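Lecture 7 notes: from sequence to structure.

We start with a single chain of 254 residues. Read the sequence below before looking at the structure.
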Amino acid sequence: MTAGTRSGELVPFRATLGRSVGLFSAFRKEQTDPAFFYGKLARDTVDQLRSYTPLDGRTVVDVGGGPGYFADALRGEGALCVCVDADALEMRLHGRSADVHGVQGSALDLPMRDGSVDVCLSSNVLEHVPDRTRMADEMVRVTRPGGLVYLSYTLWLSPWGGHETSPWHYLGGSYAAERFTRKHGHRPKNDFGRTMYAASAGEMLRWARSHPDVEPVDLRPRYLPAWMKPIVHVPFLREVITWNLLLVLRKRSA
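Now the structure, written as tokens:
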């Protein structure tokens, strides 16, 4: 557990402009130094998560957690973390050993009992599944009443919506993927219609506000300063400017 925190304590989090600049600067090293980038993002995520829920002693599932950077950061705060990923290769990405607590399984059919975890977290996975509301429903299902769902994903119409095929995705996902293939001689990892889909803010905001089993705690741009939060309520602009949407939801008690 981090010095200065106590079990059951919420820790304030400041989403400042400096923090945003630091994250976007680190993003430039995603390909050249993935351990630095994902480690920094994982620590930032855990710091943010602690402002919504205590972590020490809590059971957390990281949906689509790949090689376990987030799991490492969560365990550093005393959480009991299980990482679930559908791709065994992703679990050994960047030369890391597969997490001993990792489980291979689909985000669309999580291999967990109903109400079995205190926190269900997913970072930048939703845009990679063909049925986004089903994945979100599964995250709610495995969370206990009173527990927290932390769901973050990249918006298709954002500057990074096409991932490595950006900004050509603005001319169409299939076009962007074909252009990448012609230029590099292989399909992109984030291949539109196969491993990446056009996720919008509007779809998941409607889902969050209408789901009978959850209460929205926070709806905000994940990486942007706190004063940018109102943008999520502005149709169309939110799809471009938000970049990465964060839904923080509390599961209602029965």
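The chain is about 30% helix and 20% strand. Keep this in mind for problem set 3.
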